[in-house]
Amino acid sequence: MCHADVGARLVGLAVSGVMICIGTSLGISAPDLELGRYLASECVTCHRTATATGPIPNIFGMAEPRLTTLLRAYRDKQLPNPVMQQIADRLNDEDIAALAAYFAQARSP
After folding, report:
1. Are the CB atoms for 30 and 102 separated by under 8 Å?
2. pTM for this structure?
């Protein structure tokens, strides 16, 4: 891993930690990892085959804010992919937060 990757990862972890602390102090609970694991079973069907050059992106280890933004964009029909739009349309904000938290720490099977 190069120094830029390590630095970016540390910044991401620091931001995540700050967000959890802020959320906790405001009475907002942390995302439910078990819910994320449960919901991820549908995602893994396609995303477990992800490759660097393939059409399906690797979401394992993806930063929570990035996956949250992507899932909301599919849900709100801001990104064009009928399959992802249909899947994301069934997700509420709690589901999206749980999935993003789960995949941030998950590794590809």
Report:
1. no
2. 0.72
Stretch (H or E) spanning 87:
helix 82-89
Tokens 């931001």 sit at which residue?
15
Give the phi and the psi of residue 51 in degrees, each rounded to 5.
-130, 165
Q: Any idea what DSSP says for residue 108?
A: -
- The tokens for 88 are 């994301």
Tell me, yes or no, whether 25 and 51 share the same domain: no
Question: Which residue range(s) make up the domain with 9?
Answer: 1-30
Residues 41 and 25 in one domain: no
pLDDT at 10: 47
Neighbours of 61 (CB within 10 A): 13
Pairwise CA distance, residues 37 & 40, whole Å: 5
- We report the CATH number of the domain holding residue 59 as 1.10.760.10
Encoded tokens for 107: 């590794």
